[in-house]
Design brief:
alpha+beta; Aminopeptidase; 168 residues; 35% helix; 7-stranded mixed sheet; 29% strand
């Protein structure tokens, strides 16, 4: 059984490896293994992940069963829109997809931003499984971007949003 908890520095090498496996399993056929390796080396390195741990107004969680990391999620408040949180990453180990880990990670992240009125994410238009997953969580298409994930990535993406409501 996997439990969702806050990530720590000791998790980063395992999270980096998980992201590499997940990205290759998902995107090699879409973008090619060399491009995936390039993105993974730049965006999913331990140093890149470490910078996320200390970002204010963010949440970095992992799904942990005591012996392995089965998934991860990272979200942060948008730096320009004070009522928007952005889900930057939500990935599950390819061998564990379909076991509810993604839903558990999302359920944790979704509750971490009480000032947010909307939760936004970007998803590759060819990643149909992810689009269905997010639609099932209540996300709807809100636009498009030419640079998914980071400036000048050259990766097109659908921008999806979900309206958040908190009791009180």
């Amino acid at each position: 059984m996997f439990f969702v908890r806050t990530a720590g520095k000791g998790d980063l090498s395992r999270v980096s490896a998980l992201l590499g496996r997940s990205w290759h399993a998902t995107y090699d056929a879409i973008h090619g293994a060399d491009r995936v390796e390039e993105i993974t080396a730049a965006q999913h390195s331990v140093a890149a992940l470490d910078a996320r741990l200390s970002r204010p107004d963010s949440e970095f969680v992992v799904a942990d069963d005591g012996s392995r990391i089965g998934g991860m999620a990272y979200a942060a408040m948008d730096r320009n829109e004070t009522d928007v949180a952005v889900l930057h990453q939500l990935y599950v180990d390819p061998d564990l997809v379909g076991q509810g880990i993604g839903r558990d990670l999302f359920a944790e992240v979704e509750t971490c931003f009480p000032a947010a009125k909307r939760l936004r994410l970007e998803v590759d238009p060819k990643n149909e499984r992810a689009i269905r997953f997010y639609a099932g969580l209540g996300f709807r298409e809100a636009g498009w971007t030419r640079n998914c994930g980071f400036d000048q990535s050259g990766l097109p993406a659908i921008v999806m949003e979900k309206t958040l409501s908190f009791p009180g």
